[in-house]
Amino acid sequence: MARHSEEDAGMAKAPPAARQRKKKPKENKTRTVHANILHDCAKGEENPNRHYANNKIKTTKYTVLSFLPKNLFEQFHRFANVYFVFIALLNFVPVVNAFQPELALAPVVFILSVTAIKDLWEDYRRHRSDKEINHMDCLVYSRAERRYVEKYWKEVRVGDFIRLRCNELLPADVLLLSSSDPDRLCHIETATLDGETNLKQRQVVRSFYDLDCEFDPLKYNSIIECEKPNNDLNRFRGYIIHRSGRRDALYKENLLLRGCTIRNTEEAVGIVIYAGHETKAMLNNNGPRYKRSKLERQMNVDVFWCVIILLVMCLFAAVGHGLWMFQYGDNRPVFDVLSPEGTNLSPIMSAIYLFLTMIIVFQVLIPISLFVSIEIVKICQVYFIHQDMDLYDEETDSHLQCRALNITEDLGQMQYIFSDKTGTLTENKMVFRRCTVAGVEYSHDANARRLAMYQEMDSEEEECMSHGGTLPRRDSVTSHQSARVVLRSQSTKSHRRTGSRAEAKRASILSKHTAFSSPMEKDITPDPKLLDKVNDCSSQMDFMRFHSQPMSQLPSDLSDIIDFFIALTICNTVVVSSPNQPRHKVTLTCSGQKHQFGQTSVRSKRDHLWTGLHNDVLPQLHSRLPGCSSLLSSPSAESTLTKLHEEQPSGGLEQVFSPIPPSYDGKASWNLEEGELRYEAESPDEAALVYAARAYKCSLVGRLPDQVIVELPHLGKLSFELLHTLGFDSTRKRMSVVVRHPLTDQITVYTKGADSVIMDLIKPPDTARKFHLCLFLSFSKKIVCRTQHYLNLYAADGLRTLCIAKKILSKEEYACWLQRHLAAETAIQGREELLFESALRLETNLHLLGATGIEDRLQDGVPETIASLRKAGLQIWVLTGDKQETAVNIAYACKLLDPEEELLTLNEACALLLEESLHYIQSTPFLVHRLGLVIDGRTLAYALDKSLEDKFLAVARSCRSVLCCRSTPLQKSMVVKLVRNKLKVMTLAIGDGANDVSMIQVADVGVGISGQEGMQAVMASDFALPRFRYLQKLLLVHGHWCYSRLANMILYFFYKNAMFVALIFWYQFYCGFSGSAMIDQWYLIFFNLMFSAFPQLITGTLDKDVSAETLQQLPQLYVNGQNSEEYKPYMFWMNMIDAFYQSLVCFFIPYFAYADSDVDLFTWGTPITTLALFTILLHLGTETKTWTWMNWMSIAFSIALFFTVALCYNASCPACYSPSNPYWTMQRLLQEPLFYLLCFITPIAALLPRFFYRACQGTLFPSPVQLGRQLDKLPADIRRNILSLSRVKVGSPLCPKLPFLSLAKLWSWLDAHFLLVAGSGNIEVCF
């Protein structure tokens, strides 16, 4: 230890430049971490960890000194703010100023101040949160005190040793070196990172697994090489180099991430690898996403047109002023303004200066308050969406989350929906249904009846809770093949959510502790025939144990059965929990003390040296692992290789078949009286298979890093030595475990995975004798064919399928494979590719055992939601990784596919198939939108090629439904991107798992389902929903409202500003285009900022053009947003024309009323301002669909505010705008009857054309939304009758005559219009 410290000190004294040159090539790719206690005496510049970030976090943007400049810099990124600041500064130039410079700054200062205060408050909240986190306590090892001392989180550094205790939060990313758990495991809860509440195991680094005493940091003398900090939560690569030169690979299972919580582990010790902002949690903390909505992009175009109109008006005024000055020649008028030098300006210079002056005067044409108002309205809309109790899920205690605050209106303009299947349309709660073993199918009819009983209970409860009605269920369908009819009908019923709510409530406490453990999932009823065979197999094995007979005499079919259930039991990552203490592993009581299974035997075996047959392997592995001084890269690998060459213990078969491991005496007993074991699984598939095996008395009762304990009927508890585990990943789509079989002492590989992958790896072994080879091959081929047949049946019934297989390895084969695998494990570059190739070498030539069918039930309301979204004109594509038959059946069950549709299946990767499909569609136009497209992953990858994507889109657009099977996450995102970019449509992607993240991020709107697969999709989404059915109200109601409100508010803003600016423009014709205004500058500045601001905010937040009930009953109204009916390009120009007309009325009626009078300028201009305010507010009233007390109050407040300010200003500020005098102007006007007459006549005359147009259009050519609004005005019973009639075909016997002419007109229009919409929007609607 001392010598090692001296070596380190010598390294520390080396020249820094040389040290940097030495590390520079490696630092580009990896990070080297040393223990800080070895460098406590070194200076700060000599500590090798000095370049790494400390653990103090700072999420604030500003400091006291940087707030003002940095905030202004960020606000000036918005072009509008730069424009208004430029206008305000331009007003300080004397020759072009139009207002008092200080007063002209008021609006922009107000807007900037409001935004700055908001940013300051948010940053202060972040500062308080940072301070609280940075001052949390943790235990850090101190070399000076030789113990762990308390320190703040912010004082932790990379290379520190940290002691972690149960229920503590992790302060940094820590490499696990020691654990109080006897298995050297540490359980963590990662809910703060990915939302998954099930516990995850993390394992001590292999080198420190065999410590028999407490970890001593002073004895640590290793160096860690790992990857640079990154945000991938599911990856960690590196290795630890020991003093001897040996390298051990590091995995994500060795890393504890910041923010996780220690569970069920008393103490753990680790070394800090990443700290502060370099931790994976902080690198993933990106905050809310920012997107630009379609409406905002369209608004920016109109803002550009406003700039053009502004420039045209200014240019017109400048030319007019130049001509007006030119007519005077040298005889300048006495009121002419001289240049700063005291000379007369030329007409051209006067025109140029006036051009700049008019930009200041007309600046209101660009709505400065529009952007702030939109942000306020969107925040209010999000708040009200959150408060909608219809979007709250009581079962999961979760509600809608809005993670992107600026695209709420996009929800009302969606055209394409791309959905995942598993966990999104289905519950992702797996129930074991049936299986096939050795080519024999076991239907589990009793288990199906049990599920049907739960289904009936749930149906009765739904009927009682629905006030006399239930959601319509899909009946049997008509088809040309009767078998398909029965199959689909049964599938539809089986995919309804089974399991009563009462049962769910009874199991709620259990579910909080153990995931995937509801009675529906775990109480499996075994198949009698298969159960008899399992018992028969176990009894024969018991007989063979008693007579010391070899296992090879067991019939092959029975051997496959027992291997099948062993594979179900051990080929997983399930953690066994005790019944009385959830998530605490089961222990064995022995002589009054608790010991973990196999602990003694494992450690005793590790004391042996590797001697025997294959000593020549040592130099080979040395050559493959440069820099390693030992063959064994880890104790685990060492013990594994040692076990390969140890002789079987002398106990014989009696010891092998012992009910408990040989290392324990007969006093051991199992403490299971308090209840059955619980299984903590990371996926519902694993839990379903383990519970299925337990139903056949093949129970998983304990798990260690090196052993799995299984209880078999008649044989008791057996310990399988776990030699290696190849975890499941989306590329391989399978999982394998390598164990030493306690019954045969053979090294056995058990593999489970997707049938599309496993079936390709099946190959009959060639070790049989030639005499039996043909017969054996024929029998094996028959089993494979039968299994494939049953797999197709399972998939047709909508079940998720998995294949189970095994492989026997010799010790030499496994040793050779292990050497190569260890080399792949210790590689940093290209490790994934090397590990994939290594796994492929192991998982070939498998022997097929059987297959399973697991039901993933549909969520409540999915068929009804999809049907409703279809009526709304939305195209729905389902992108799933499931096999084709399963996906098709689920599509029929959820009404994505209709039995009357013709299915177009693309399963061949060739261009000719696409061309033929396109030709077939074009030759049969009557089939367009009556086709369903099903395409598999291989064909999809081919169709997404640049040369074929247009043909693929042409085929897909002609189909009513599109179903992509076996698609990868990358393919999902490519499909969404292709449709969005090529078709220029609004897309929404919805999913629940990590494999849906790329698709969610590519779409215009991403929706995450907070389901069984954690929160990865939620964290990447714009909106999060508890259930798929809530998507209906989110789009059809809230999306429609948000779009309608914002679209009308934006148009109203443009109208209001243009109308007010035009008043000044008309006055220029009477003042020589001098830039003068008849309106007091205080009114000019604060008219849009204060007097007319509040009513439009209330209307933009609360207005409802159609009620929520009608929007859901008539989904066709959603087409209004898809076609942008509320904000067409021509509407902007119509509003501009209307604004100029209304300004003409408001200008010239007072002009002629006060003609030839002796009133001053402001006595004439103030009524114009008042009339403009009344007209603008009355205009807003005509456009408001829903009146509440807040609407009335806001309008009354605006009028009261205007008159209060006017009266106070005119009474107290006689010389504020010299030489003009506004003193007592409003007071005199309120005494004149003419003023009141103008206030009555002028707004009516100004709004009469708009009102006339609205009346004619609503009477003669009503829009769907207007008819929906008329429906809302009817009594509730009549409205329900009309809406119920919308489901009956007109002219049928069930369609009665409508009693009222107005309703008849309404109904006939609905009939004609919606049939038209249905034809154009690919919707089948019957009225």
TrEMBL record:
Residues 1018-1263 form the P-type ATPase C-terminal domain. It holds the Pfam family Cation_ATPase. It catalyses: a beta-D-glucosyl-(1<->1')-N-acylsphing-4-enine(out) + ATP + H2O = a beta-D-glucosyl-(1<->1')-N-acylsphing-4-enine(in) + ADP + phosphate + H(+); ATP + H2O + phospholipidSide 1 = ADP + phosphate + phospholipidSide 2. It is found in: Endomembrane system; Endoplasmic reticulum membrane; Membrane. Residues 1-33, 465-507 are annotated as: Disordered. Belongs to the cation transport ATPase (P-type) (TC 3.A.3) family. Type IV subfamily. Its EC number is 7.6.2.1. One of its GO terms (molecular function) is magnesium ion binding. This is Phospholipid-transporting ATPase. Residues 44-102 form the P-type ATPase N-terminal domain. GO terms for cellular component: endoplasmic reticulum membrane; phospholipid-translocating ATPase complex; plasma membrane. ATP binds at residues 420-422, 686, 728, 752, 800, 880-882, 966, 972, 995-996. The active site is at 420 (4-aspartylphosphate intermediate). Its cofactor is Mg(2+). The chain crosses the membrane at residues 79-97, 103-121, 303-328, 348-372, 1050-1070, 1132-1155, 1161-1180, 1192-1212, 1234-1253. Keywords: ATP-binding, Endoplasmic reticulum, Magnesium, Membrane, Metal-binding, Nucleotide-binding, Translocase, Transmembrane, Transmembrane helix. It is a multi-pass membrane protein.
